[in-house]
């Protein structure tokens, strides 16, 4: 999903207040509200970067080389300490890294067919290796809150359309809980999300028409959300920090916002059908929607006071505010690549 102006990937941090922009020309980090560039690492330091993951708002950033001018191999994750201005850790794997996730106490790395979990930051040691089905997108998400009762990790199961759920907290005590399996879809998974506290998992299949939200403890379907009736490629599913709302972005250029706490706010379809689990499911349509440049991949986050932010691979930044009756109005538009650090002047 490479975009214009040399952008290779975009990702929000765990509090949705910053995002990394990985580029052919290095790495940039932006604060969301207000939109300012917080850090700028040129390619002579890092080369072209394929993956960037911040640890909350700390000075710790995980990177993986990518693009056409990498300085570091795509099978090595490096931890950069922006305070010390140096790389403090590197771990090399047997194959290309597909995704990296950080918690304050864990480093999790997805390869094509395995996921490696490490204690972090010190001592950094491998806690467990989980085998997955072929996972070229590196789908996996983890509960980020330290207060979460479970350190829930979700990733594709061995059976097509299934999700494995593992409590990483159990590995700290030396015991390991057997992964639980969630039969989420009939088709292959395309997108996954875990809410900050780890109580809910959202899933979508490659068809991209439905998003299902599950209770992670009971492994039961909570609500089925309909993005649309025509197939689409989903780029991201995001829970709001309080888990009251969910946003979904796709290659149709439309961002859909759904209510999870007050689901009666969502629009209802006129017809209901038997769900694939054999039970009666009424799928709900979005509470509100807005549009960004079509066919342009983007990732979303929730801002203050019922706002949703979309940052796109063409370098654009969109902020919309939605109301409980479904109105959605643009509050900000910017080209974040043109937003410079104050130090540059």
Give the arrangement of secondary structure elements.
Layout (H helix, E strand, L loop, with lengths): L6 E6 L5 E6 L2 E6 L4 E7 H4 E8 L5 E11 L5 E6 L4 E7 L6 E4 L3 E5 L3 E6 L6 E6 L9 E2 L9 E5 L5 E6 L1 H4 L7 E4 L5 E6 L5 E6 L4 E6 L4 E7 L7 E6 L5 E6 L3 E6 L7 E2 L4 E2 L5 E2 L2 E2 L2 E4 L6 E6 L3 E6 L3 E7 L5 E8 L10
Parallel strand pairs: 20-27
Antiparallel strand pairs: 1-2, 2-3, 3-4, 5-6, 6-7, 7-8, 9-10, 10-11, 11-12, 13-14, 14-15, 15-16, 17-18, 18-19, 19-20, 21-22, 22-23, 23-28, 24-27, 25-26, 29-30, 30-31, 31-32
What does this structure look like?
The structure is a single chain. This protein is an all-beta fold. The chain contains two helices and 32 strands. Strands 17-18-19-20-27-24 form a six-stranded mixed beta sheet, with no helix packed on it. Strands 1-2-3-4 form a four-stranded antiparallel beta sheet. Strand 9 and strand 10 form a beta hairpin. It is globular, with a radius of gyration of 19 Å.
């Amino acid at each position: 999903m490479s975009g214009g102006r040399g952008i290779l990937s975009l990702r929000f941090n765990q509090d949705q207040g910053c995002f990394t922009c990985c580029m052919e020309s290095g790495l940039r980090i932006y604060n969301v509200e207000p939109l300012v560039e917080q850090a700028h690492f040129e390619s002579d330091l890092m080369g072209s970067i394929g993956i960037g993951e911040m640890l909350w708002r700390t000075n710790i950033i995980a990177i993986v080389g990518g693009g056409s001018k990498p300085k570091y191999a795509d099978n090595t994750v490096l931890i950069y300490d922006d305070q010390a201005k140096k790389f403090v850790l590197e771990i090399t794997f047997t194959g290309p890294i597909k995704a990296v996730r950080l918690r304050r106490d864990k480093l999790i790395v997805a390869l094509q067919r395995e996921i490696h979990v490490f204690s972090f930051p010190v001592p950094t040691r491998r806690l467990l290796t989980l085998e997955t089905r072929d996972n070229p997108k590196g789908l996996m998400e983890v509960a980020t809150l330290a207060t979460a009762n479970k350190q829930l990790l979700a990733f594709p199961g061995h059976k097509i359309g299934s999700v494995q759920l593992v409590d990483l907290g159990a590995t700290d005590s030396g015991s390991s809980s057997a992964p639980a399996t969630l039969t989420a879809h009939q088709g292959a998974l395309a997108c996954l999300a875990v809410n900050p506290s780890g109580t809910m998992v959202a899933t979508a299949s490659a068809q991209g028409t439905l998003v299902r939200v599950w209770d992670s403890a009971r492994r039961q379907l909570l609500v089925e959300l309909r993005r649309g009736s025509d197939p689409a490629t989903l780029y991201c599913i995001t829970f709001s920090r309080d888990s009251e709302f969910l946003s979904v972005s796709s290659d149709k250029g439309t961002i859909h916002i759904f209510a999870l706490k007050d689901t009666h706010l969502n629009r209802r379809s006129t017809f209901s059908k038997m769900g694939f689990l054999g039970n009666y499911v009424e799928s709900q349509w979005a509470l509100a929607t807005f549009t960004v440049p079509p066919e342009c991949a983007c990732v979303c986050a929730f801002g203050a006071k019922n706002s949703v932010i979309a940052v796109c691979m063409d370098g654009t930044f969109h902020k919309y505010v939605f109301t409980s009756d479904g109105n959605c109005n643009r509050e900000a538009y910017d080209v974040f690549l043109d937003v410079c650090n104050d130090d540059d002047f």
